[in-house]
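Troubleshooting log. The previous structure file for this entry was overwritten by mistake, so regenerating from the original sequence record. Sequence copied from the archived sheet and checked twice against the printout by T.R.
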Amino acid sequence: MIYENKDQVKKGCANILAFDDGDVRVLDEAKFQGQLIDDLIYTVVFSPDEAAKEAAAWLIRRGAAALGIWSASIQPLYEAMGRKDIGGFTVPAINLRGITFDAAQAVFRAALKGKVGPLIFEIARSEIDYTKQRPLEYTCAVTAAAVKTGWRGPVFLQGDHFQMNAKKFAADADKETQGVKNLIWEGIEAGFYNIDIDTSTLVDLSQPTVKEQQRTNFSLAAELTTMIRDLEPEGITISVGGEIGEVGGKNSTVEELQVFMDGYLEELKKRGGAAKGISKISVQTGTTHGGVPLADGTVAKVKIDFDVLEKLSETARVAYGLSGAVQHGASTLPDEAFDRFPATGTAEIHLATGFQNIIYDSKRFPAELRAKIYDYLKANMKGEWKEKDTEEQFIYKTRKKAFGPFKLDLWHLPAEIREGICAELERQFAFLFDKLKVNGTRDILDTHVPQVDVPLKMPAALKG
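Regenerated output below.
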């Protein structure tokens, strides 16, 4: 059920959660993990009452903490990778655009079966808008899924592509920069202790030298890193990522990585020199976000330059102590490509559209709802229909933008449909975990990621 006011929230928690003394105690773990966690997350997402939503969000996060589930930074683990103390695997970073509570459960089930350690849940600046999932909602959906499935330990939540829009930056640099800063603040408040700064959109290839091409990129990245360090909670060093090449553009080079890092570190020194820098660096090696749809709606095969990726990762580790390079736009790659990432020392891989495709293309997905969604896209997104695109290409490119408008329909699909779709997702997650060599790495978390309990202010609705 969805709680419509604070009194319903309190009544629903009776004899299951106690929230005296400004924190939560779990009185009945089975009932919390059973129906109550479902009711709380549905309240966060759909309740019309802001006080009820705020109360439910706090109860999810602090109730999870009481069970040993907490938002964490992957920074210490990435520092160990930079020292080459650990390695041989690539950390999957998973973007969940729809049915997030159910899909995250599929992730955790596959992770528990495979004894997976490092695993990131992320959402990009653009996805936050078109999926209508603010950072706190995303945190709560993933955390609730951890409670539901019996996961224990750190949960890595990441702001993916907290990105500068080049056109908006050109029109009003201060306004666009402030927009990204506001989102960083919101993300940290929601428990995003891993943030990927993406100012690579401002790289200017028309400039005569690589340093001039990258200057705005590394200068702004340093500015935003300094801000993050000022905001991070006590006891936590947020893992910050930088980016040197916009995904879908030209392939990155070792020279660009070196110029970016040297300029970035120089800028950090100008700002006091004490701030810890980035832990990883995103590069371009041949992929495009979402893949390239062909006329029939299928996705073209992409060839990644693994030699470049390996050189970039090695340079990042040896010269700068980073965990390595990060590969974006990878979920639509052919299956045989994924075991190449651990072999080439790739630190992290970002996966999104492939999971969206599983949801939409599942035989279990109701045909009438799919038709309704596609009709909506043709009516409301026709400004994005390029003249050369077939209808199939247009639908493939735009259907990600239906997750927000149809969130209620998707979350309220019959349980057997959601379970069937999520079983398909779970199989894909398990396949990826195996290929990326993160199965059997659970002990790494216990060794490298300490529990840091970040206190959260109790909502006024729960007091008294």
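The chain has two domains: 6-67, 69-359+415-448. Archived copy saved in two places this time.
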